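thought: user wants a sequence for this fold. calling inverse folding tool.
action: design(structure=
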């Protein structure tokens, strides 16, 4: 049975040009987090490579793998070896021409408990994800694990309260957001602080509005989208780290630096969900009879 409290670990890491080296680094840090008491460990978005979406290049579809597949076998083995729940963001090859940005959830016995396919796909300068990823078709999901029911969304999803709400309503106690977000170097001085603050604020708001823990794990370091020696054109991206864990009232209980690789640890106490929701009963007071128009793009 899931316990009332457990420790989660977020692996804030930099990513180099060689996928195998990144995977080995990630597995070593998963072991480190487990040795430090983490029962649930989450890796950042697309951790096996530098952020390749800085360009549109059809040859990079070759980086994708099926789920289950070779990489998921290794991740499952790590979860089983350390007796942890492991959340990993992967470039999924579903079928010829159909690829997803997918979070896979492995239980402590190595079982693949479920996957979540990223629903919101951005298309911004140096974030050309619509070229690579088909939008998710599984909906928002909470997945049962030995640590309880967990939700996982991915990066751009973190800006949308609808995704957080629908996942929380399924009983998730923690919303995990594996992430790859950074600054354009030319924009950092003028907009960097505000961008980072908005990112942190919106996710804390998800915790408050839904009475759940939120755990956001980002990569760190400057990247040019270098894959096996070939970089993308442009000025690159500076990933801002800042991984954090907040409680059901949005209080940050652990936060990492903006420029260092770290294992971030935080305690989840499920009794706080009950306490917070009793005193701030946002879910109780929802007017579910009045929300149907939310499914419209705009209201004239």
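)
observation: tool returned 300 residues.
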């Amino acid at each position: 049975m899931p316990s009332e409290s457990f420790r989660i670990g977020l692996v804030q890491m930099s990513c180099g040009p060689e996928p195998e080296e990144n995977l080995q680094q990630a597995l070593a840090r998963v072991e480190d987090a487990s040795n430090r008491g983490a029962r649930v460990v989450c890796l950042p978005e697309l951790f096996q490579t530098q952020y390749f979406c800085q360009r549109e290049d059809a040859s990079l579809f070759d980086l994708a793998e099926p789920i289950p597949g070779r990489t998921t076998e290794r991740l499952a083995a790590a979860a089983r070896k350390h007796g942890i729940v492991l959340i990993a963001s992967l470039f999924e090859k579903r079928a010829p021409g159909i690829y997803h940005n997918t979070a896979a959830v492995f239980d402590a016995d190595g079982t693949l408990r479920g996957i979540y396919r990223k629903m919101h796909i951005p298309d911004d300068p140096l974030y050309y994800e619509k070229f690579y990823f088909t939008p998710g078709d599984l909906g928002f999901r909470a997945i049962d694990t030995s640590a309880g029911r967990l939700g996982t969304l991915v990066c751009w999803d973190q800006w949308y309260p609808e995704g957080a709400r629908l996942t929380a309503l399924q009983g998730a106690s923690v919303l995990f957001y594996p992430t790859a977000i950074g600054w354009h170097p030319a924009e950092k001085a003028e907009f960097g602080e505000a961008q980072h603050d908005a990112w942190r604020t919106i996710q804390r708001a998800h915790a408050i509005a839904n009475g759940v823990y939120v755990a956001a794990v980002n990569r760190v370091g400057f990247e040019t989208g270098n894959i096996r020696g070939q970089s993308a054109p442009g000025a690159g991206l500076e990933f801002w780290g800042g991984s954090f864990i907040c409680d059901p009232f949005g209080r940050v209980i652990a936060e990492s630096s903006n420029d260092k690789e770290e294992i971030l640890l935080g305690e989840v106490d499920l009794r706080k969900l009950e306490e917070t929701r009793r005193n701030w009963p946002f879910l109780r007071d929802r007017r579910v009879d009045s929300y149907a128009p939310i499914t419209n793009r705009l209201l004239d």
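thought: summarizing for user.
answer: Here is the designed sequence. The mean pLDDT is 97.
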